[in-house]
Structures
1.
Amino acid sequence: MDIYQQVCRHIVIPLHAIWERTPYLRHLPYLEKSQFFPEEEIQSIQWEKIKNLLKHAYSNCSFYRSRFDVAGIRPDKIQSFNDYLSVPIQTKADVINAKNDIYASNVAKFYPFLTTGSTGKPLQGFWDKKCSQFKRACALRSSFWSGSR
């Protein structure tokens, strides 16, 4: 790494993040480390995140709670990947028709984003600031993969 890259990575970018008041760089050490975790550890982390996501969706989104109830599913009963396969698949039309029922009641502010529309028409989604900052750190890590420093 040349001196310019060192200055940018360790001084300019962190100072810019402080100026922006964005915490995305705090995620970067974990992302850089976790990409080399053994497969079993990654699968364990993924499974915990899936279980937490299902619990969150059921507890905070009437759209998902209704879908789970109709299918006779409770998130706490999903104990394996085979159980997870019983979670109803949601289509783009389902999400569009959900209107306000899809919003998580425990999130104060959402920020809109659009999908690329690779399946025909872009879909508007929403995320909170924490998600946005984590995604930004992921994008930075992927830039590192391509050699950008």
2.
Amino acid sequence: NYRNQWPGISGNFVTSHFSYDQKVTSLYGGLGLMVVQDNAAQTLKTTRVSGIYAYNQQVGRKFSINVGFEATYFQKSLDWNKLTFGDMIDPRRGFVYQTNDIPRGGTVSGIDFAAGIIGYSDVFYAGFAAHHLTQPNESLILGTSPLPMKITAHAGATIPLDGTTASKYSKGGASISPNILFRQQDNFTQLNMGIYIKKDALVGGVWYRNKDAFIVTLGIQSDYIKIGYSYDVTISRLGTGTGGA
């Protein structure tokens, strides 16, 4: 995955994400590896490497439950030379002075943990996850700055449109898939509501992110490959000059 948020303004957020997972029958589930690098304004960089284990339990002929656990090593670094301060500004000439602020920061690293559960069938799914269970300290200067716990709840369904069964739909035909996702971290909340429409190998969709953006997606999906593109149309007061995401 690659995401470039607000490329139309200085200080954009670029995130790159790689993941791999595989079923391991002897472990009654699967193992996964995930690497994420986030670069905020070419100034604050965060790298996360995660190992994941998921346990699978079938509780009915058509219903299963997965329970997942994640352990992460993270490193966050700050490029002090990219920061600007008020004492650097000349009223007419702009940023022309050296700051008297004492350089601080550098690099911080630590261990982070997450867990989640999801129940699913061929027709619907619902799940819950909790990240930053131990609220690790990520302060780059003196003192502590615990990373608040983040909770996520999500659900969705797949509804065939041409009278086929859910298992037949996955091989072709047409379907519609409504989805909802809710996140809360400290005092911040996010609600995403969206819908996908699939016809054979073609997939399209639209999402609404609370008071921030509409997200349009388009892609192709087969048994062996899935490729997609999404674009965020900013509707907040930031305006379309952000370049979306």
